[in-house]
Amino acid sequence: MSVYQATASAPVNIACIKYWGKRDTKLILPTNSSLSVTLDQDHLRSTTTSRADPSFEKDRLWLNGKEEEIKEGGRLATCIKEMKRLRREVEEKSPSEPKLSSFAVHIASRNNFPTAAGLASSASGFAALVSSLAALYKLPATPSELSLISRQGSGSACRSLFGGFVAWEMGSAADGSDSYAVEVAPQSHWPDIHALICVVSDDKKGTSSTSGMQRTVETSPLLQHRIKNVVPERMKAISEAILAKDFDTFARITMQDSNQFHAVCLDTDPPIFYMNDVSRSIIALVTEYNRVSVENGGKLKAAYTYDAGPNAVIYAPKENLKEIVSMIIRYFPQAEPFKDPFGLFANESLGSGRVV
Ligand code: ADP
Ligand code: DP6
Ligand code: CO
């Protein structure tokens, strides 16, 4: 008897231009385009195994060892349904292929980092889910085509189908067919950029990204200004900075956009606070570090950014990493780093990841 099973991993991606707001909550179509950096597979990632078998009675999913309900019409169900639809196309073209689309699937996924803590677990999670089903079903789909489906699991997940620097084009079609991820530049274009992950708290966040951004869309006037007047220009400018390997511009825009995203959260009614005092002191530290460099005629040396949680991601050229890590340890002595297999620092409270 044949076993139909496949495993795939996907890394997290951390946005420089933040996605925050949906114009269609069912299809997950955003109110603005966004741009992110996908981290190294070897650091924060989801690993997902999918198996199809005629004896399975229904689709089931286990996340970190605990079974999650697959709600009818929900995001998990939509992704699985869409992947089965693509599998049916393969079966229709090649009648000798086993009819896996008619079997239920069992899916088991694990994150090697805190889930729902603002470190983009929904991004790596849904990207790994779609990738494992694509491998199981032997789909000929491109990353952009798969991103259309992972987007319907979690918006940010569409960007984790690519490594390196990735844009999610918001699109304009009502059916979402032009709202997918594209590569801006591969990691190899600018391997000098590294990401340092500072885990301030691994607690599950109080307000999920989904409900937080919905409340923002309903109540924040600042969001309307952001999506019309700010993001389009930033998308263009940061893409150009990436292509030109201009860290100064990349860093400036990344920090501005993180700040505006958190301002929009504060502008929401009732307000949402994702950062805490430690997050804010890391901002102060990076600001001071950059100020000293600029005052001495240099350029920006690091950029902080925060997703919907208190944890900092610091982007920096490799030459500055050691200095940044020792600065953080000096101010946050409770963060005891150790050497990870890549010669960088990582542990529960302070980690470091090379970009892809
Ligand atoms: P985060 O900041 O971690 O992305 P979100 O609130 O956006 O937090 O999403 C967290 C949710 O994403 C989880 O509660 C779970 O439903 C889903 N998720 C996280 N990891 C996985 C995974 N590996 N496979 C499937 N779904 C996942
Ligand atoms: C702050 O993709 O997690 O990380 O589409 O509702 O699942 P849903 O939300 P999600 O939101 C991510 C928000 C963000 C910014 C970003 O990743 O662009
Ligand atoms: Co998320």
UniProtKB/TrEMBL annotation:
One of its GO terms (molecular function) is diphosphomevalonate decarboxylase activity. One of its GO terms (biological process) is isopentenyl diphosphate biosynthetic process, mevalonate pathway. It catalyses: (R)-5-diphosphomevalonate + ATP = isopentenyl diphosphate + ADP + phosphate + CO2. One of its GO terms (cellular component) is cytosol. Its EC number is 4.1.1.33. Pathway: Isoprenoid biosynthesis; isopentenyl diphosphate biosynthesis via mevalonate pathway; isopentenyl diphosphate from (R)-mevalonate: step 3/3. Residues 10-181 form the Diphosphomevalonate decarboxylase-like N-terminal domain. Belongs to the diphosphomevalonate decarboxylase family. This is Diphosphomevalonate decarboxylase. Residues 195-356 form the Mvd1 C-terminal domain. Pfam families: MDD_C (PF18376), MVD-like_N (PF22700). Gene3D superfamilies: 3.30.230.10, GHMP kinase, C-terminal domain (3.30.70.890). The keyword Secreted does not apply. PANTHER family: DIPHOSPHOMEVALONATE DECARBOXYLASE. Keywords: ATP-binding, Kinase, Lipid biosynthesis, Lipid metabolism, Lyase, Nucleotide-binding, Steroid biosynthesis, Steroid metabolism, Sterol biosynthesis, Sterol metabolism, Transferase. It comes from Cristinia sonorae.
